[in-house]
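Take a careful look at the sequence and tokenised backbone pasted below. I need to know what the token row says about the fold.
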Amino acid sequence: MLLVSSSRAGYHHGDLAQALENAAMQLLAEKPAQEISLREVARAADVSHNAPYHHFADRRGLLKVLAERSMADLVAEVRAATADVDAVSALIEGGAAYLRFAVERPNGFDVIYDPTVCIPGAPSEIMAPLIAELENLLGTASAAAGLSGDDAFLGVWGLMHGLGTLCAAGHFPLDAALAAYDASIRRMLPL
């Protein structure tokens, strides 16, 4: 009796979950999350087309992981930019890191803020602390620079998010967005 395995040789990864997530993140660097399929992730990870279902319940599960990993990367970049600098520099450099992420990783940025993936008011267990840390990093920098209160923080976040979104869409270059953010923040600061 001849036994034939239906699995592909590449299926036996040391860590299937990590291999699938890495393949999905590589695809996200090339195309929007909404265009990535589980079958495509399997192909990119060199595993059987059913292998992703061992890690992702469905396509929404894949998108959720893409958003969580992208948010973790964004938070890490903002954290690094705000560390060991004065209050005003933390606000400006933290916002600049946010803007750069939006422009340099637009697909990751888009999936983070996709309300069908990260439902406003109901983030996943992984996303909730990441959101809290990002808000804390930027909110603390804003307050320390003299822009305290929820309304001030919302204005700062809206400024950086809006500039990042418009710049990523090609409406103006990154240098112009960074200069506009810096100048706007400096004008907002109390004398």
